[in-house]
Amino acid sequence: MIKQYTYKFRLYPNKEQAAFLDNQLGSSRFVYNFFLERAVNLYEVHNIKFNYYESKKIIPLLKKGFPFLKGCNAQSLQASLKNLDAAYRNFFQHRSKFPNFKKKTDSNSISVPQHFGVIDSILSIPKLKSGIKVKFHRRVNETVKSITITKNQSGKYYVNMLVEKTFAPLSETNKVSGTDVGIKSFAAITSGEDANNAVTIKVDNPKYLIRAQAQLKKLNRQFAKKTKGSKNKVKFRKRLSVLHEKVGNQRKDFLHKLSSKMINDSQVIVIEDLNIRGMVRNRHLSKSISDAGWGSFAGMLAYKADWHGRNVHKVNRFYSSSKTCPVPGCGYVYKELKLSERLWVCPECGTTHDRDGAASQNLFLEGIKIRQELPELTPVEYAPAGTQSIVYSRHTSKQEALQFIGE
Ligand SMILES: [Zn+2]
Prior knowledge:
Blueprint: E1 2-12, H1 15-46, H2 52-56, H3 59-65, H4 74-92, E2 108-112, E3 117-119, E4 122-124, E5 132-135, E6 144-151, E7 157-166, E8 176-181, E9 187-192, E10 199-203, H5 207-225, H6 231-265, E11 268-272, H7 276-281, H8 283-292, H9 294-308, E12 311-315, E13 343-345, E14 352-354, H10 355-373, H11 398-401
Helix pairs in contact: 1-4, 5-6, 6-9
Bound molecules: zinc ion (ZN).
């Protein structure tokens, strides 16, 4: 399986190179903002929509009006316009909000689609005579298609190398997992080969992450109190972005480890399709959802599944999984379940459920159904689709079937 993959390495530019990169970053940002503003005006005044090809023709004129752009790689400026085009597309297809103006204090990037090279840990790019030092922490054996140079909020430079990588699919397994985003814990995961041996565990948010988040909150409050434009404010912004970066890296590390383990373990992975933007609006949930990085976790699962031949399924967010009794043959829907209720007793079969656990168990059962429908996975011991109840018919007791472990 050949897939697109990005390597990220830290860059160590000297003073002169950093100044050159800052100028490139600034120019790319300028082009992006210039065309965004123009597009907004054109639309408001003449009702003309943004058009990439029409805008591209203006770049040479722009260089005449703004001579500092001349020191720039023309392809990077074009790439910046392409990014705006992508942002507009995402907006029109309801994938994201209306494009924002880029700020110097944001993380900034420039694309270098061609004419770059790496020899002995030195990166060369167009218009810069000397090469920039790269710290490789792993080997790149593939041909690099294009590169993007980024500067993050704490002032560090990185190079992202886009390659096409061959991934060997993992050997197939009969294991299925269902994962539900937790409110207190990060997630509840039910996994197993069938309902008889399913195990539910709770994955907590790592303690270091909780601590760092508390620190971040405190620093944010202090930052808000500083006078606008003061030296102190600048100092605090820098400290804040360093901490943000640290928390972000720690979270990413945690999510990478968990998603890799899940992909390794299960053939079918079922998660709930949460409307993140809708959820964040709900105050009770906003902290846990946005902080826990559920969106990027779902993204990691999706691309890793793609690399390794696994199946990730998102189940409709209107499917009330935490309200449905997961005991096979019951399936009672407890409509009155409130967000404050951690535990509930099924009025139909008398089983006590933990809300997160019930949700992951239901998603797991959904996964069992999905796996049965996979053409390459139809072992004889499993019931054909449509007669799933046979799978559960050998239960000694309903309660045992979905025992809750990990509490
Ligand atoms: Zn029940």
